[in-house]
Amino acid sequence: MDDVRYISNPSSGKTGYHLAKAAMAHGAHVIFITGKSPYLPFGAEIINVTSASDMMREVKNNFKRADIIAGAAAVGDFTPGRIKGKIKREGKEGITLELKPTEDIMAWAGKNKGKKTIVGYSAESGRDLSGAKRKIKSKNLDMIVYNDISKEGLGFDSDENEITIMDKKGRTVFSGRNSKEKLAGIIMDLIFKKAGK
Q: What is the distance between the alpha carbons of residues 111 and 60, in angstroms, rounded to a whole number?
């Protein structure tokens, strides 16, 4: 928003961390592009970013090096125009922020994928899978992981998740609740099977 305030979400980075560890267990070299998180997988090539535009830049910079793209980061869909300095309270009853859409990283990856395997995430409230199925087509994904963030004790900053994994045709290939670590192993097993690695 300004030089001291920002808009974010409560994502912890645990899912990405466990996915990276599971990919390395398959023998992959992992390029781990991450926002601020204490969960950094030892042995991965770590690239730190602070904004959606930073992450987009690093994905583009490293895209040719990857065979599989797994987009588990909770990247903001909108960003405010940056205001220099600090927004002052004095004399203001309120402020209006103008938000502009960020570039869709996974849509860009799907458009440019070639022979790569592209796996997206869809964090939603409720059990309606139609939005995730639309993302498969609109973003040209090979697989999508749907997770319901509205349930208490699941999703952001928790150690457990309840997910549904769908393939390119929108068919459910896995559905269940478990620790993020175990679910990451299941996801990566499916990804590597799909990629033929």
A: 12
